[in-house]
Amino acid sequence: MTPQQADLVEQLIAVGRKAVAAGLVIGSGGNLSAREPGSDACVVTCSGSWLDELRPEDFTLVAIADGAVRDGHPKPSSEAMLHLATYRVRADVNAVIHLHPQTSVLLDALGKPIRLLTIDHAYYVREVRSTPFIQSGTPELAEAGAAAVADGCNCVILGHHGCSVLGETVELAHKRAANLEEAARATLTMLQLGDTTTACPPEYLARVRAGEGSV
Ligand SMILES: [Zn+2]
Questions:
Q1: Among 47, 162, 197, 211, which one has the highest count of C-beta atoms within 10 angstroms of its own C-beta?
Q2: In which residue ranges of the chain is pLDDT below 70?
């Protein structure tokens, strides 16, 4: 691996540890990947790894076009196809974070939209899509997850399973994933209080979706 790829691995190791600590996933679920901008390969966590115990040797360098293993661990994650399909449709994306955030998945399964309440939710998440339940680790799930984000959306809930969250950088994808689950937790609290409508002011949401606004 190149020094740049080794640096991306270090960033993903930190994200895995923080994501488990924040309750965004139980350690043995989920997988992470990143690529150098413009590269035809990405680093992805290997099969069976625990996200809070990742080591550099737990990553595989795979070709984005066909999933061929180029370096590192010989067995990439069973969900690597989701990452590769996403990179193929999104040249602007350099990190894909697949986690199993409980509240996001719960609300989606109940048919309750995740509402963006704060300016952080709106700025980082912007929009949430979802796919129906599709067996994990299949080409069908990979294609559905990629199709859901092909037009620029960065957060998709995979029904009864988890999320796939994208970013131009590892840091941005991580912030998006954290804000997605925080928005879901806020939505659940609002529903428990009997509120079904409150959300971030629509004018602010329109501004961030147009590429403006800040937090
Ligand atoms: Zn999963």
A1: 162
A2: none
